[in-house]
Amino acid sequence: MSWENYCFYYTDHIEVPLPPGHRFPMVKYRLLREKVLADGIIQANQLFESPLALDDDLLRVHDENYVYGLKNHSLPEKELRPIGLTWGPELLKRSYSSVGGFVAASDSALKNGFSALLAGGTHHAHKDRGEGYCVFNDFAVAATRLIDQKKVNKILIIDLDVHQGNGNSSILGKRDDIFILSLHGEKNYPFRKVPSHLDVALPEKTNDEEYLTALREALQKINFAFDMIFYQAGVDNLKEDILGTFELSFQGLMKRDQMVFEFAKNRPIAMAIGGGYASPIELTVEAHANTFKVAKSYFS
Fold this sequence. Notes:
The protein is α/β, with parallel strands linked by helices. The chain has ten helices and eight strands.
């Protein structure tokens, strides 16, 4: 299949107001979409507004009290505070769109071989609560949906965000039809890690060579059959990231992406971009765009 036939989903058509000086870089999603278009990595006719997730799909992994508490704005402030974003109807709609976009990307990847959401990777959301800028858990929703519908038997999650996906692990970590590999910072948020199936915690100031060696060794331990990959391609491993602890370069991140795509060996991949908080934010946007550039070179 040619690259021009792959589908990509975005959420930045829903604007979420944040107070001045808020540390979450909401603008990066729009900047990324504009950059992949301007650089010719993705064409306009390949991009689609993310659909809204269905409540029934959210309830596969989230408590009813949590989902409807968010919808009805009835959750107390102390339960919203760990999410770290200003609550309102725009954030609620954006959160539904983010999950719906990854569900759509997972369906598209299963059909065509590759698809991605230009957002998402909300791996800190738990069954009964959100935290760390994550409201609902998109990977957990999409994975359980595909398995419940018997479209796949086993999914491999490769989570390469610098922050461990504690929400992924708390929801999915005891399942045997989903396997989570997480490569993350040892001394970084979340400070209480929830064990994944395979955790590789790396020290501060990990560089390109050390990181790629650790990833290669971790992938060599994946010696079982799986039907598709969910790839959380966070770029907060970048040296300039203000919330990261690693010292990876653009080149190191691109080699990481190539390693994942080559490991897949023609199995379907659904990708979300994960975290990235560099200063200036344009460095994060470039790193995210590079992931799509690597994907284009591989899947073409």
